[in-house]
Amino acid sequence: MADRGCPLEAVPLPAEVRESLAELELELSEGDITQKGYEKKRAKLLARYIPLLQGADPSLQAENRVPAPTQTTAAVSKQRKPRPPSSRDERFRSDVHTEAVQAALARYKERKVPMPSRRRSALTHSSVDTSTPPDVHSAPPDVTTGLMELSHRERPQLASVRGVARGCSGSVLETAGGVPVSSRVSSKIQQLLNTLKRPKRPPLKEFFVDDLEELLEVQQPDPNQPKPEGSQMVLLKGEPLAVGVPWPPSLLAVLQRWGTTQPKAPCLTALDAAGKAVYTLTYGKLWSRSLKLAYTLLNKLTSKNEPLLKPGDRVALVFPNSDPVMFMVAFYGCLLAELVPVPIEVPLTRKDAGSQQVGFLLGSCGVTLALTTDACQKGLPKAQTGEVATFRGWPPLSWLVIDGKHLTKPPKDWQPQAQDARAGTAYIEYKTSKEGSTVGVTVTHACLLAHCQALTQACGYSEAETLTNVLDFKRDAGLWHGVLTSVLNRMHVVSVPYALMKVNPLSWIQKVCSYKARAALVKSRDMHWSLLAQRGQRDVSLSSLRMLIVADGANPWSISSCDAFLNVFQSRGLRPEVICPCAGSPEALTVAIRRPPELGGPPPRRAVLSMNGLSFGVIRVDAEEKLSVLTVQDVGQALPGADVCVVKVEGAPHLCKTDEIGEICVSSSATGTAYYGLLGITKSVFETIPVTAGGTPVSDRPFTRTGLLGFIGPDNLVFVVGKLDGLMVVGIRRHNADDIVATALAVEPMKFVYRGRIAVFSVTVLHDDRIVLVAEQRPDASEEDSFQWMSRVLQAVDSIHQVGVYCLALVPANTLPKAPLGGIHISETKQRFLEGLLHPCNVLMCPHTCVTNLPKPRQKQPEVGPASMIVGNLVAGKRIAQASGRELAHVEDSDQARKFLFLPDVLQWRAHTTPDHPLFLLLNAKGTVTSTATCVQLHKRAERVAAALMEKARLSTGDHVALVYPPGVDLIAAFYGCLYCGCVPVTVRPPHPQNLATTLPTVKMIVEVSKSACVLTTQAIMRLLKSKDAAAAVDVRTWPTILDTADDIPKKKVTSIFRPPSPDVLAYLDFSVSTTGILAGVKMSHAATSALCRSIKLQCELYPSRQIAICLDPYCGLGFALWCLCSVYSGHQSVLVPPLELESNVSLWLSAVSQYKARVTFCSYSVMEMCTKGLGAQTGVLRTKGVNLSCVRTCMVVAEERPRIALTQSFSKLFKDLGLPARAVSTTFGCRVNVAICLQPNRLGKLAEQGTAGPDPTTVYVDMRALRHDRVRLVERGSPHSLPLTESGKILPGVKVIIAHTETKGPLGDSHLGEIWVSSPHNATGYYTVYGEEALHADHFSARLSFGDTQTVWARTGYLGFLRRTELTDASGERHDALYVVGSLDETLELRGMRYHPIDIETSVVRAHRSIAECAVFTWTNLLVVVVELDGLEQDALDLVALVTNVVLEEHHLVVGVVVLVDPGVIPINSRGEKQRMHLRDGFLADQLDPIYVAYNM
């Protein structure tokens, strides 16, 4: 128990006052009394003794306890200065830890940590196990690793947690786009930034190279760190085993002797859950029943007429903690039959924590038979056959029930063989390692006997003594004392089951009292529980005890339990010298135990050690830094007959110096001998040869490593400061999990979390251990309180241990995996954390403070000038990265090109020459044709629209007209109508009727920005634009003239069709919102429009006889060109499939392709994704419906981004079953300045044979880390950090591409990353914006290289990429130049001096957990914000916070600042399937996302 003491030493307090104070203290710790009430009562009690107390610092008064008698506190260090009498003797007590924690926290008071925010809807944790924790008496919380099982009788109580809008209301911030930012979000981010401005740990100097690219920092030893200064330790020899005592030849011989000479002597008393003695096993009964079992095992079990077992076989013992009698019979029965018992826990369910590993142990031990009791067998999970179910990972077992009626009495003359101690294995004790694997430690008969003899001598056991045992009798000290050594001395053991302790924590004390027990075997948790329950129990007496063995005396918090227990029970006859802590391990069995003075033990000692020293493995008795200390008590002397030494933890087993912490090693005849079946690690653990600094062995006998860390103190006392399993090495410092638990416990956890349900472990992230702390939260703790507690724990650990906690998670009560007999199953908890199965209800990550080994931020070097760059490339033999499509002039006769200069002319010519040739077919969701248009029909409709614009709208040439239509033929007719009368059309996506508030303002904005004088639309949309709902979103009075083309069109045609005076006249405006959220319209002249159509016609070989299927939106970019322009120019027939219709019929597009046998089809990534996700399981159904895609030669994805290889590959693989050729799918690339730069043409059939189609697109693998430095480094497929890039298609005829440096604008060499610049007749002519910002973007359309060819005018695409000359040849016989697009410059994130592409981080995040549906990242004030769509239960959302943080750190060396968990569909996506990250950012900052949870990483 923890406390903050005041100097009370000067005033001796009477025993009853001390008792009342202790009780008061416990009431407070359990939350049975408020802090205020506690202080009031305490002041009253102490008023007579300390009148000055009122003036003391209240933070130190919060809790206090009276010190233990001072004779137990002898200082451990020789060179220690004597303290002045007024200083605290309390300093030796570990309760000082709490004082340290409180003082540390006081220093942090002023720092505000941003609290995570949670969705306002109630987030309910409705785990079935989330029972309300019972009151104190039904299950006292645990002081050790938490052995808390909650009673299952109570119904789950759902803790509904609501997030409250917090955050200071300040001036409204604005984002770059002028969006007002919710002060709630921004103030939290501000808090986070303030927190991060704190100075970090000192910067680190040296590096090691991580794959040559980015250097991870390696922590160098601090020159001022403490180093061991003592002399080399000498081997510590335990007292010799008593000579002259007639030790028996074996334990079984002793059993036979007692069983025959003292048959009535009691051996073991079993208690039920009410504390009643249900059965006392006598030595006679034990002997006869064990014989019976041995006979049955050897003679009555057969399989195929062979005996089932032969001597030396291993047998599993599966007995519940409540049945020690049957266990003891089974154990000795196996020994008598020369079988090897392997005691294990009862598996309650098929999925018990760690049960699979136990199965692995049984399998490796070759166990085929399990012994159990009738009652236990009935309770095991059963298969349908009624047999016991096979547990996951277990070998097939036969089960034998060993209740009396199932056994056979041996014949009179039958005698078991073995009666002497020998080298054979006696039993196997299981042990679970830090990683969760279970191994078996073998103990031979000789070791078993030697261990019992050593314990008998050390504890001074005498014949017929009574021992009360609270521990698990299947393993560890419970087995060693309560089952084995007890028989050697004919002792009477009273076994107190765990179930009884849960109901009545005082039961063991009552049994000591009623049986006048001389010895008791407990853990510190049992002492703690009994303190909480002892109120009002005045009649118990512990005066009979001569030894109270504390089995976990090596734990850092056992000392406070011992002290508190002595405080309360000294008045009930407990003598201070009776408390005997001991230390043991499965490998070395008992390592050391404190002897009572009458057995010649030295007085007990304590050491107050500096945590800082300990973290460097050095013992420094704390003198100046009074806060970060660890108080430890000795665990006594080495066992008789044992040699003990301390060796270095890492490297060769060199002896430590006297002031150095190392691993304790034991050499004696009483230790385990091997890990069963594991020869390699057996050698390193059980056969260690410690050596001196000079390299000479210290002994000719091998030593066993105990797994305990410690040192040898004065009087040859052994001190343990931690376990190897709990060791966490962060940087170069070592921390012990138990110490960090103790610090967390000192932050008054009672109100928020359960004392015993705290787990600490480390996970490896970015080449270093990171500390994770998980605790179970009380259901009544508010989120705010828990968060406060979490941030205080972080501060306390940081202050006391000088180490950061990487992740702190609180889970609902009763959900952590339990170890047998309560406790937390640490390795299973760690596994769940790493797999995202922990389901926390609160989480706080601190990667900013913990991760100090990130590579140095990149420093921008002074740029090399463009001229030097060219010279450098020439010297290196690299050509300038430049490529072009086929020449246009040679391909076509110039007359024809002149004839087709204006699209309106082409349409008139087609209407005249091939009037009935069908150009367009529009399909609806059912796949039926809803409208068609032949050349003449389209021409006539266009004429009528032109007439309406001239007459009704009174427009003049050059006016802009907004076309607000759903995808269809009306849109195309209206477009040509505008061209016919000289107006400039602007296609606008109509507003969504269900989502007017967000979609209508965009429509209004385009209409206004484009200065449209008129809106053409359908009747339904016209009504929508003027509706009441619309009025709520925009000002409907300011719309320009709106014409409905169905009703308002006159039947007459236009008198004359407008012919532009020059090809450079504006033909149409192409408006779209970029992924960065910028609305931009580009101007397309008539010349550019015709050139675009001509390029596409040549590249895709489009003729009037062709049919192509288009599933794209017709409002901007290449989608608009393919939908409205190309069919009229080339004369092919277009089957139009509006992507919106796929929402009600996913297979519409593919069915249309199959039905019309389209050789060429175009789609967007969003359409491809819908088909992949929506039709994944339906390919069989489609095949039966006759869908056949073998007609497809090319399926092109229209995109303005890096090709999505994973999506195109899964699409190809999925629809291969429907005949889709493997090489059909390809990508295109266009952007604002040029909508079609690359298109991959037909690559199959005759054209490919003729070689006109060009080679297949190539894929290269580049190093993702080099990309961050704007470099391209090609690597092999599958190498670490490799990123696949596919070329974006073949460059169109007439298009020239060059790669230019983003800053110097000089040309770059082959395979160098730079901005893609394009020159072509179909480049747009400029931006059309109303704000007069053309100057800003002028160089987008008229850029010139700063060196080399400075004459050509280029357009800057704003995309990063590189050109690479391949080994392939194209149609002209030239080597093929492949263009690889890496990503948009506007989208890149500049972090730590490097350039990141959001898609790369997002890909890593989506891979991190199966319930991450989608992800988007953006930066805000230099913090990386990751938004994750959760496709799963809301309760599981918080699992993702740590996984996302880990994966981004590991793969990108970036610390995530904020993790936002949202519902599926929240991340906005445009019609091309691109994420609108800036919209998302604005939504997040304006607090419009309604997130499930927002975690601010510290």
Describe this structure in words.
The protein has 1498 residues and is α/β, with parallel strands linked by helices. Helices cover 29% and strands 22% of the residues. The protein contains 42 helices and 66 strands. Strands 10-9-20-19-21-22-23-24-27 form a nine-stranded mixed β-sheet, with helices on both faces. A hairpin with a 2-residue loop joins strand 33 (727-730) and strand 34 (733-736). Helix 4 (96-108) packs across helix 20, helix 11 (445-459) packs across helix 12 (476-488) and helix 31 (1086-1100) packs across helix 32 (1117-1130). The longest helix is centred in the middle third of the chain and has 19 residues, at 783-801. It starts with 14 loop residues before the first helix and ends with a strand.
Helix-strand layout with pairing:
Layout: H1 15-29, H2 35-46, H3 58-61, H4 96-108, E1 117-118, E2 123-124, E3 160-161, E4 173-174, E5 180-181, H5 183-196, E6 207-210, E7 214-217, E8 236-237, H6 251-261, E9 266-271, E10 277-282, H7 283-299, E11 302-303, E12 306-307, E13 314-318, H8 324-336, E14 340-344, H9 355-364, E15 369-372, H10 374-379, E16 398-401, E17 425-432, E18 438-444, H11 445-459, E19 466-469, H12 476-488, E20 492-495, H13 498-503, H14 507-515, E21 519-522, H15 524-533, E22 547-550, H16 558-569, E23 579-585, E24 589-593, E25 606-610, H17 611-615, E26 629-633, E27 637-638, E28 643-647, E29 662-667, E30 674-675, H18 679-686, E31 704-712, E32 718-723, E33 727-730, E34 733-736, H19 737-746, E35 753-765, E36 768-777, H20 783-801, E37 805-812, H21 826-835, E38 842-845, H22 847-850, H23 866-875, E39 882-884, H24 894-899, H25 903-913, E40 918-923, E41 929-934, H26 935-951, E42 960-964, H27 969-980, E43 984-988, H28 996-1009, E44 1012-1017, H29 1019-1025, H30 1028-1033, E45 1041-1044, E46 1066-1073, E47 1079-1085, H31 1086-1100, E48 1107-1111, H32 1117-1130, ...
Parallel strand pairs: 9-20, 13-14, 13-15, 15-16, 19-20, 19-21, 21-22, 22-23, 36-37, 40-49, 42-43, 42-44, 44-45, 48-49, 48-50, 50-51, 51-52, 64-65
Antiparallel strand pairs: 1-66, 2-3, 4-5, 6-7, 8-28, 9-10, 11-12, 17-18, 18-30, 23-24, 24-27, 25-26, 28-29, 29-31, 31-32, 33-34, 35-36, 37-38, 39-56, 40-41, 46-47, 47-58, 52-53, 54-55, 56-57, 57-59, 59-60, 61-62, 63-64, 65-66
